[in-house]
Amino acid sequence: MANEQLTELLTAYRQDKRVARIAAAAAAGRATRAVVDGTIGSQRAFIIAAAWLEREEPTFVIADDKEEAAYLLNDLESLLPKRRVLFLPDSFKRPGAYEDLNPDNALQRTEVVNQLALGGAMIVVSYPEAMFEMVVDPEALDAKRIDVRKGEVLDVDTLIELLVEFGFVRTDFVAQPGEFSIRGGIVDVYSYANEFPYRIELFDEEVESIRTFDPGDQLSKANIGRVSIVPNVNTKFDRSQKVSILEVLPQGTALWIKDYQFFLDRLQLAFENAIAFGATVSQLDESELAEIMRTRAFLRPPSVLSQVSDYAL
């Protein structure tokens, strides 16, 4: 469907009185409940996008599973180009399979937490297996953040000490989150909170330029004035520093849940499977996966009931 047709159809949804009632319910806030029934296919995306455009406040959408969430994300990105439509994945290569971590997913989860902490208009799409994992409290994340700004003086030796303390590994060339390299007056850092690594160029000790670049071809992506480098959220924060993603949502966020009971059932199953797998992890295992399982930073389904009541649903 052409962009013009999508825009026309979305406008028609925005003008529907039922969408106006949904937007009003979302604006009413805490304990407001509205039910949308009888939708099929991409209708859900049109309704969510239309209602969101009426108020442009944070919105959190919970699909039944990862595949459905991915389709919904794609639809919303098409309907709302150049808007903040984010995806919160689980930390593993396959939802519910806890044997293998996915580093890119950990990066994406951290970026979502950062964006939520910034506030403003956005839509976040997720699914039960991603939500049962706690996330780092934004305040705890902020306390372990290295900020570098263009024009400031940067002590490279101090930066190296901090990066090593945060668990970063020095390499010849950065290829994945958690690596850094130093060549002359150039410092490359692949943070756990950005899709691309940063290249910091120094003139003596002054930060002359900062840009993101593609580690594959080394080509620049964008010039920026400031970077925030954060450590691995899976290993550098304990359970006391982690919270439910629902506790991070800005005030006034509206929740959309495809099927509430199904959501709770999937949360319970994910929790039980994670606990069972965690029991098989050796206490001598020092891997990142073992650390996650030992902290048991998982969301218990009953706690969702009280947290959900803080939002329009």
How are the SSEs placed, and which strands pair?
Blueprint: H1 3-14, H2 17-28, H3 43-55, E1 59-62, H4 66-79, E2 85-87, E3 92-94, E4 97-101, H5 103-118, E5 123-126, H6 128-131, E6 135-136, H7 138-143, E7 146-149, H8 156-165, E8 169-170, E9 179-183, E10 186-189, E11 198-203, E12 206-213, E13 220-224, E14 226-229, E15 242-243, E16 254-257, H9 260-278, H10 288-295, H11 301-308
Care to describe what's here?
The protein has 313 residues and is of the alpha/beta class. Helix content is 39%, strand content 21%. It contains eleven helices and 16 strands. The protein has helices spanning 3-14, 17-28, 43-55, 66-79, 103-118, 128-131, 138-143, 156-165, 260-278, 288-295, 301-308, and strands at 59-62, 85-87, 92-94, 97-101, 123-126, 135-136, 146-149, 169-170, 179-183, 186-189, 198-203, 206-213, 220-224, 226-229, 242-243, 254-257. The chain has a six-stranded mixed beta sheet, with no helix packed on it. A four-stranded parallel beta sheet has the order 2-5-1-16, with helices on both faces. A hairpin with a 2-residue loop joins β3 (92-94) and β4 (97-101). It is globular and about 60 Å long. 34% of the residues are buried.
